[in-house]
Amino acid sequence: MRILITGASGLLGLNTALESANQHTVFGQVNRNAIQTEAFTVLNADLVEPGAVDRILDRTQPDWVIHCAALANLEACENDPDLAWKLNTTLPRNLAEQCRNGGARLLHVSTDAVFDGRVGGYSEVDQPNPQGTYSQTKYQAELAVAEVNPDAIIARVNLFGWSLYGKRSLAEFFLNNLSAGKQVMGFTDIIFCPLLVNDIAHIFIQMLENGLSGLYHVLSIDSMSKYEFGVAIARRFGLNEDLIEPKSVIDANLKAVRSPNLTLKVDKLIHDLGEIPPNISTGIDRFYKLYQQGYPQMLLGLVNN
């Protein structure tokens, strides 16, 4: 299959492109972060420019499109809501429309943060209540994509893994700071179900191969607090977990609202895919194994200076 992956220099896009390139012909769209690799074809394009989506679809002629590109930094979205709406809502609607017209299957990436996190245990039929600009723009994108392209897959995710510069995921945050002997905060009242990005990539391909459509939660089968996650990273890498200070998110003075309980059910995914996603511990073990294999250095080597 010919796969176009947007945001291919980002945490999810890059790993998805690399994981998919062994069995498929992959085109990875990048914007500001130029990369160089023989694993897939890198295309530079600013997708919010008029006509850019048409041009890249015409050039790549994809069977599948995995849309990972987004403004995902919560604070950045609060500081520039216009850009957030343009990248996170208007672009996905346009892409979904063009994929429908051109016959490409679309997998659009959304977020667990569309829920307010007051209850937890959310399924795909539960009503979202997005709290901040990022969450609002992502939820509106879900509605737009479903409206203009009902056959599209919409995947709500929460992820961790190795990124291009080693600074994008929560796992890297804990690892970098603890390795440097720096004290960090770990939120005890934010519960989530992060899935290793490499595992998400494989699940995405399976979803497309199996012809799935509609809304799915693509997360780990279990959950923990962000503090517990940091401790698990520390223990796996043999670092000092005492450097992680248990903290309430209320005391962190963050501008963007954080949803406290983002435990989401993955029963629908398990039923329709016939496979159970890994748990967090398994993901951390693989994250560590990739580290031992020099994966972070390999990614950094893709940076096109």
Q: Which short descriptors sum up this protein?
A:
305 residues, Rossmann fold, two-stranded parallel sheet, globular
**Structure annotation, total helices:** 11
Poorly predicted parts? none
CATH superfamily: NAD(P)-binding Rossmann-like Domain
* String of helices and strands: EHEEHEHHEHEEHEEEHEEHEHHH
Strand content: 15-25%
Q: Say what the CATH topology is.
A: Rossmann fold
Instruction: Tell me how many strands there are.
Output: 13
Please identify the oligomeric state: single chain
Q: State the share of residues found in helices, binned by percent.
A: 40-55%
* CATH architectural type: 3-Layer(aba) Sandwich
Sketch the major β-sheet: 7 strands, parallel
Alpha-beta content class: alpha/beta
- Average pLDDT across residues? 96
How many domains? 1
Radius of gyration: 18 Å
CATH class: Alpha Beta
